[in-house]
Automatic annotation (TrEMBL), chains A, B:
Organism listed in the record: Kribbella yunnanensis
Protein name: Deferrochelatase
Cross-referenced NCBIfam families: Dyp_perox_fam, tat_substr_1
Alphabetical keyword list: Heme, Iron, Lyase, Metal-binding, Oxidoreductase, Peroxidase, Signal
Protein function: Involved in the recovery of exogenous heme iron. Extracts iron from heme while preserving the protoporphyrin ring intact.
Cofactor: record remark: Binds 1 heme b (iron(II)-protoporphyrin IX) group non-covalently per subunit.
Family (UniProt): Belongs to the DyP-type peroxidase family.
Domain (Dyp-type peroxidase C-terminal): residue spans on this chain: 225-408
Catalysed transformations (reactions): heme b + 2 H(+) = protoporphyrin IX + Fe(2+)
Cellular compartment(s): Cell envelope
Gene that specifies this protein: efeB
EC code: 1.11.1.-
Length: 420, 420
C-alpha cells in the first residue's frame, strides 16, 4: 500500500502558535525583523516563547538559565574544510528555525509526499519554542592540521591542565565542536541536538552527550536560585545578565583580547562532576554548611540572615574562628581571593542511572562562561582542587573547553569569522 | 567553628504552600483526612499540586501521566524479614510526606541543630509537590527463600520469557523491588528516589535507575497525546483513567484472581527499549507510517482523518491492500488481534548520553500496567516480536516485571498484606 491513500495532514509547529508564532517565523525566513535585538533584551516573558537567535552575542550564555539541558560534543569526521563550512551553514539555518519553534522543513517535502524521509524528526511537533537556545563552541582539537585553522587558535583556548584529583574519562571529554541546547522543555532540547546530529551525518559524529534535568544556577536577578544535588542554593553569587558592565569585563571577549574572530564571544569550560551524594547525605548539617560557607536552608552566608547578604570574610565567631571557614567553597571561589576573577556559571544537575555499585550516577554538569580561562577557570579551579573540602565529596570525570564565537547576524553563519 | 553562630532558617517545603499545603500536611500527619479518596478522584487541577497517596489503588498507575520519571530497581541486601518490613514501613511514611510535597523531617533535628545529617537531602526545598506519585512493585526474586515469601508469589508474576530479538542486559533488568517516581518536575522525582535509597541504606541497594525526560503516553482523555522519539503520537489508543469499567477488566487485579494480597493491585512490565533513531530518521515518511499504521502528523489511523477516529482494519486502498498493513504495529498490538487484551501504557522517552559509536543512547522506557501479564503483555509482545516491522528499528535491552499491590490505607504500609 502507499500512503497517498490516506488524508494525512503534516502539522508544522509554526501553525500552532498563531499570530506570535507567525511573526517569529517571518523574522526567521526574512532574516531581518529581529536583527537589532541582543540576546539580553529578547528574553521571552513566559517560558514557552522563543529566545531571539540572532544578535551581537550568542544566546544561551547570559539568557536567563532555562530549566533543561542537552549538551553534545561532536567529532568532525570529514577532513574537508568545505564540508565543515557547509555543515556550519546548514546548522545555522536549522538553529534559527529550531529556536523559533519551527520544524526543519516539511514532512517528506523533498521528493513528494511520503517518498523521502521527513526533514524533521517530528518529536517536537505541537511543542512551543520553550525558550530554546543553541550555543556553539569550538574545541582545541578543531585547530589541528585538518582544516587549516591552526593559526586561528586563540591563545586563551588552552588545553586545560590536569588538576589535583582529576579523574577524567577521555570518552566524556574534549570534542571538536560543542552544542549546548537549553530549553524549559527537555523534549525540545533533545529534538534540537538530534536534528543537528542528523544534519551532520557523515560529517560529524556525537562524541558524548549529556542531559541535565534541572538548572543549578540562576543567571538573572529575576530568577529564584535553584538547588544542586547537595541540597544547597546554587547561583547566588553568580554573574547575572543585569550586570552589563561586569559581563563586558568577565564574560565577553573584547576586541583587544586577540583572536579577532572571537570578539563578542566567550570561552566555555564544561566539567562533568560526579557528586558522592550518598556520602554527603551522611555528613552532618553543620559540616555541610562549613564546607560550603553558606546556610543550607536560607542560602545566606554563615553569620548572615538572608541569601543575598554580602559575605563577611572577616567576621569571627565566639570561638575566634572565621565565620566563613578558610577552606570553605565560597571563600576559595570568591573573586576577592582570585584576583577579581569571576565566572558565569550555567550548570545542570544530572542523574545518569546508577553506577553498578548501588549508587546513583549523579552530579553537576558544570558549565562556566568567561572572557579568558587562563585568568578565570584555571586559577580558580587550581585553588579549589588544592584546598576545597568539597573535594572529599566530588570527582571531576569529564572536561571540555570551547571557544564560543560572537553572535550570528542575519545572513551569516556560526563561525563565519573563523573561516574568513 | 560551629554552625550555631549563624542564624540559619530551616525552610521546610510545607511552609511554602500556604493553606492548601497545610491541609495536606495535616492529612498526612493525622493519617485521616483524605482516606476516602481514590487515586482517580484526587488528580490535582494544575500540575504543581499534590496527588493523594492513600486510596484503594496505588497512585501513579491511572494518575494522568506526569511529564517526568525516575524509576529505580532495588536489590534487597538484608536477609532479615523484619528489617525488610521495617524498611517498607519507613518508606511508606516517607512516601506520604514526599508526595504531599513535604521534606522528610527537619534539617538536623535528631541530635540538635547541626550535629546530625539532615534527614532530608534538601534539593527539593522550595519546590511544590508537582504531582509526585510513588508506586511500589515486588519482583519475582523477592519471592525466593530469603524472606519466606515463596508461597505468596502470585501465579501471574511469571518470569518473562525470552522474546525473539531480545538483547537483555542483566544489570538493567529485574530487581527485588521497583519504585516508580513520576512528577511534573524531574528534581522532585529524583529527590524522592534518592531519599528512599538513603533511607534504605544497608538494607537495599540501587540495582539500576532510569530517568525519563518526557512522557510517551497519555492516560487521561484530558491530556494531549505526547510524541515518542520516532516523532509519532503515542498513547492514542491507550487505556484511560476515565474508562472505569475497562480498568477493572484490564488493569486492577480482582479478588477472584488468586494471590489475595494483590487485590486492587496491578502488574507492571518494564522494558528499556533502545530506538535506533538515526536509522529511523533515514526512513521515508511513507514507510514510517506504514510501519506504525498511523499518520505521523495527525496521529490518525491510515485512511482516516482524525487522531481519535476508530481504526478500520478492513478498509482497502486502491491497490487492494489493507489500509492498515497486516504487519503494522497498531494492528499487531490491537485488542482485536490479541483476544481483547489491552495495556495501560505509561512509558517515558529517555536519552542517556551516547553509545560510543557516535549515536545517541535514546529510546523508550516502556512501562505497562495490567491485570495479568500472562494474558496481556506476554502474548502481545510475543506477536510483536515475531512480526512487527518496527523491530528493525528497536531493541529491547532491559526488562522487569513487578507485582504492585493495592493502595495503602492510612496506618498501613506498602506490602502489608504480603507479609500478613
Ligand atoms: C559539584 C561541585 C560544586 C558544587 C556542589 C558547588 C556548589 C556551590 C555553592 C552551593 C555555592 C554557593 C552559592 C553561590 O554563590 O552560587 C557555590 C559558589 C561558587 N562556586 Fe561552586 N560548586 C561546585 C563546583 C564549582 C567549581 C568547579 C567552580 C569553579 C572552578 C565553582 C565556582 C564557584 C564560584 C565562583 C562561586 C561563587 C563564590 C562567591 O563569589 O561567593 N564551583 N558553589
Ligand atoms: C519503542 C517501541 C515502541 C514504539 C515506538 C511504539 C509506538 C506506538 C505508537 C506510535 C502507537 C500508536 C498510538 C497509540 O495508540 O498509542 C502504538 C500503539 C500501541 N502500542 Fe506501541 N510502541 C512501542 C512498543 C510497544 C510494546 C513493547 C508494546 C506491548 C508489548 C506496545 C503496545 C501497543 C499497544 C497495545 C498499542 C495500541 C494499539 C491499538 O489498540 O490501537 N507498543 N505504539
Amino acid at each position: 500500500m502507499t500512503t497517498e491513500d490516506a488524508p494525512r495532514k503534516g502539522i508544522s509547529r509554526r501553525g500552532l502558535f498563531g499570530a506570535a508564532g507567525a511573526a517569529v517565523a517571518t523574522g526567521v525566513a526574512g532574516y531581518a525583523v529581529h536583527s537589532a535585538l541582543s540576546g539580553e533584551e529578547s528574553q521571552a516573558a513566559d517560558n514557552t516563547g522563543p529566545v531571539e537567535f540572532h544578535g551581537p552575542h550568542q544566546a544561551g550564555i547570559v539568557t536567563a538559565a532555562q530549566d533543561r539541558l542537552h549538551f553534545a560534543a561532536f567529532d568532525v569526521t570529514t577532513t574537508k574544510r568545505d564540508e565543515l563550512i557547509a555543515l556550519l551553514k546548514e546548522w545555522t539555518a536549522a538553529a534559527a528555525l529550531l529556536t523559533a519553534g519551527r520544524d526543519i522543513g516539511q514532512y517528506g517535502a523533498v521528493n513528494g509526499p511520503g517518498e523521502a524521509p521527513p526533514e524533521d524528526t517530528g518529536e517536537a511537533v505541537g511543542l512551543p519554542p520553550a525558550r530554546l537556545t543553541l550555543t556553539i563552541g569550538f574545541g582545541p582539537s578543531l585547530f589541528d592540521k585538518r582544516f587549516g585553522l591552526a593559526s586561528k587558535r586563540p591563545a586563551a583556548l588552552v588545553d586545560l591542565p590536569h588538576f589535583i584529583g582529576d579523574d577524567i574519562e577521555p570518552g566524556r571529554s574534549g570534542g571538536d565542536i560543542a552544542v549546548q541546547a537549553c530549553s524549559d522543555d527537555p523534549q525540545v532540547a533533545v529534538h534540537a541536538i538530534r536534528n543537528l546530529a542528523r544534519i551532520g551525518f557523515g560529517r560529524v559524529a556525537v562524541r558524548y552527550s549529556q542531559l541535565g534535568f534541572g538548572r543549578t544556577s540562576s543567571t538573572s536577578r529575576a530568577q529564584t536560585t535553584p538547588r544542586n544535588l547537595f541540597g544547597f542554593k546554587d547561583g547566588t553569587n553568580n554573574l547575572k545578565l543585569e550586570d552589563a558592565e561586569k559581563l563586558e569585563q568577565q564574560v565577553w571577549v573584547q576586541p583587544e583580547d586577540g583572536a579577532e574572530w572571537m570578539a563578542g564571544g566567550s570561552y566555555l569550560v564544561s566539567r562533568r562532576i560526579r557528586m558522592n551524594i550518598e556520602i554527603w547525605d551522611r555528613t552532618s548539617l553543620g559540616e555541610q554548611e562549613t564546607i560550603i560557607g553558606r546556610g543550607k536552608g536560607t542560602g545566606a552566608p554563615l553569620g548572615k540572615a538572608e541569601e543575598f547578604d554580602a559575605i563577611d570574610f572577616v567576621a569571627k565567631g565566639s570561638d575566634g574562628e572565621a565565620k566563613i571557614p578558610m577552606d570553605s567553597h565560597v571563600r576559595l571561589a570568591h573573586p576577592q581571593f582570585n584576583n577579581g576573577a569571576e565566572l558565569l556559571r550555567r550548570g545542570y544537575n544530572f542523574v545518569d542511572g546508577s553506577d553498578g555499585l548501588g549508587r546513583l550516577d549523579a552530579g553537576l554538569f558544570f558549565l562556566a562562561y568567561q572572557r579568558d580561562p587562563r585568568k578565570q577557570f584555571i586559577p580558580i579551579q587550581t585553588q579549589l582542587a588544592r584546598t576545597d573540602t568539597l573535594n572529599e565529596y566530588i570527582h571531576h570525570v569529564g572536561s571540555g573547553i570551547f571557544a564560543c564565537p560572537g553572535g550570528v547576524t542575519p545572513g551569516s553563519y556560526w563561525g563565519e569569522k573563523l573561516f574568513a
